[in-house]
Amino acid sequence: MKEMIFNLRNDLKEKLPPQRYEHSLSVSFICTALAMRYHADLEKSELAGLLHDCAKHYGDGNIIKKCEKQKIPLSLDELKAPVVLHAKYGAWLAEHKYGIKDTEVINAIRWHTTGRPNMSLLEKIVFTADYIEPRRDKATDLPVVRSVAFIDLDECIYFILKGTLEYLERKGYFVDSMSVQAYEYYKKIHEVKKGEL
What we know:
This protein is mainly α and 197 residues long. It has helices at 2-15, 18-38, 42-51, 60-69, 76-80, 85-96, 103-110, 121-132, 142-149, 153-171, 177-193.
């Protein structure tokens, strides 16, 4: 696995724009840090973090065409918010181009943009690492979210989803229904922990 990760780094360095490559490296390192904290598989976490944006450089229009060519089904939500599609196509690339057969890793790549209810530990780690990696600087709540990430992963995901949905609604962007479902799921966990139910 270590040799595979090393080879993938070289491959991605050639294919991705420099900023996207640096982001991918940074996410993979945060994934391993979170994996250490939550006793997840370090190599799977690093691998999923490294490949999470392997399709991002294609652009929304191209990704739709590529998904159609590979007969990857697209929902109406995904067509209305194509920015999330790099995760779906990236999961396909991970399996068919990079030879990743581990379903956990593929799913972590697949759900890193929208999240989903009841994510696996690895899915939570990649979803969170993508948001909190050191080169991110736009979200106003980042310092709090970064500290919560290493205390309570479910609570962190609730804060990420809440902030993301508020931002999308404020900007008037379409919100993928899977993100709403994920938010409702983690909001219930948050409310139970806070004794609000």
